[in-house]
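Note to self: keep these together.
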Amino acid sequence: MQERNLKVIEGLLFVLFILLWGLFLSGGSGKVKRRTLSLWQYLPVHTEVFHDFFENSIRKGQYELTPILGYDTYEGGKGMLLPFFRNGMQEELFPIQRFALDYWKGKEYYKAKYSDTVPDYFTESDDQSVEEKKKDPGKMKQMGTGRAYTIKELASYSFLLEHFYIVDETTSMTKQDLNGTKLVTMDLSAKLGKEEPLVLIYHTHGSETYKKANGKEGSVIEVGTALTKELENVYGIKTVHDKSVYDMVDGQLDRNAAYNFAGDSVEAALRKNPSVKVVIDLHRDSVENNIHLRTKVNGKSAAQIMFFNGVSRLASKGDIGYLYNPNKEANLAFSLQMQLLCGKYYPDLTRRIYIKGYRYNLHLAKRAMLVEVGAQNNTVEEAKNAMKPLAEMLYRLLSGEKSYKKN
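Structure:
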């Protein structure tokens, strides 16, 4: 009975504390705050410990609730009970705060402490091991066939996988994801001829360069400039080109947060240019040196390209909730329709669509795509030459041309 009474009293005290805290966090008047603080003189407990604890909590809680939960030091007070309160909140009420603190102490410390409970994908960056998964020369050389496919053919899940996709071993696809009929019939056309920008081009890995030719490497950003000019000068599609480099930090290559930096900039650009309907992240791929991603376009050597999709799913863990993509279906439709149009007009231009388990900022627009243009053993001129047919196919798709035939 006594134990039960103690639990009831403890519960009431906790509720009272939360109510008082909420009052002050919600911006209660200074008069109310002063009256509450003055209650100390009527309480039978007058220890400096309790007075210091509650006074610091009330006076500084409105501005420092998050630091109280998130940091290991408290600069504003010397109360003896505050550290115990903070640790209790981290361990019992908000354990994710302690989880995050441990993570930022360093990967080695973090992995050692949570090796049995942390999923592998939590510490795997979006860019990790992508290049290592693309070393099969046979798969890389399976190109389009220079023909248009029927709805009946494209409705087959196995047919799509066999002819148009490479699915990374770390992820998995479903028939619901690759519903060919739905993907190829989705209307992705857009109104052309407007004065406002319709396309945004950027480069998450803007430091990527090509094989030296005539003493110059040339970067993927130059390839973005070539695509911009083609879209604007030939097809009248106004384009915004973000030339920022997101994978260099203090002059050093660092891709750990490149997708985060790029994503923030793309979101800002979309707010500034609400007319933009197409978002393209242009990359240069890396393959084994014995793989040469080249074709001919109008008699000129051109780099082959590859459309890349992230589906926010890992084969071992299932859907990745924190990387939810509301535009996943439209993204898949966009890349497949582009692939089919390229296969119809330029059968050797594209490699098969590569699918991996993360998101790659493709959630930011329905018509968002990541495009790998050539590899390290292509010249920048070959990569630029590939922008002419890419711009043409984009124009055809936005104009409403069908990427399939009915019969």
